[in-house]
Amino acid sequence: MGARVRCSDRRPRQPVSDDRQHHRSRSPAGDEWKRGAKDQALGRSRGGLTTKIHMLADALGRPLRFIVTAGQVNDITQAPALLDGQSGDAVLADKAYDSNALRAIIAEIGATAVIPSNRTRRIIIPHDANAYKQRNRIERCFCRLKHFRRLATRYDRRTDNFTGFIHLAAAMIWMQ
């Protein structure tokens, strides 16, 4: 179905197609239309598009394992994968990792869970406050990683490229 466009002097010009391929004025909302959105590990949050790096570090604050997820993914969902096959005396984590299931996984490893109880927990589980002070080492490890500008600003679009640079930055930290 084509229509003819006429100028002011009533001469016919070129035909203009009235047919549209997509009958909407915006991009499709379905996941099947988004090219590579699953490969980018970007998630919506109040701050915009974000990415989370879930990390396991040793007692000296050196990175051991990474998992990169979208920003809205809960921390505790990645903890079992990070702890798989690990051994140690203690596992230090913040309140986001407080769950009975994770504490059972840590007990299977043969380690002590040094995790403060979440305020919504009915029965507060005590933790060693002096050992918990050592948790700042992983925070310092994240600060060292953020010294790499490419990592701090997330220049890489695809998750596998971003993860590759995280491994490169971790290797640089291990060499120091």
Strand order of the largest sheet: 3-4-5
H/E topology pattern = EEEEEHEHEHHHH
Mean residue pLDDT? 81
Q: What is the helix content? A: 25-40%
Biggest sheet descriptor: 3 strands, antiparallel
Strand content: 15-25%
Number of helices: 6
Rounded to the nearest angstrom, the distance between the terminal CA atoms is 69 Å
Let me know the number of strands: 7
Shape: elongated
Evaluate the radius of gyration.
Answer: 25 Å
Structure description:
The chain is an alpha+beta fold. It is 29% helix and 22% strand. The strands form 3 sheets. A 3-stranded antiparallel beta sheet has the order 3-4-5. The chain has a two-stranded antiparallel ribbon with strand order 1-2. The chain has a two-stranded parallel sheet with strand order 6-7. The chain starts with a strand and ends with a helix.
Task: Please summarize what this structure is.
With 176 residues, this protein is of the alpha+beta class.
Layout of helices and strands, plus pairs?
Blueprint lengths: L1 E5 L5 E6 L25 E3 L2 E10 L5 E8 L8 H5 L6 E3 L7 H10 L2 E3 L14 H4 L3 H11 L2 H4 L6 H17 L1
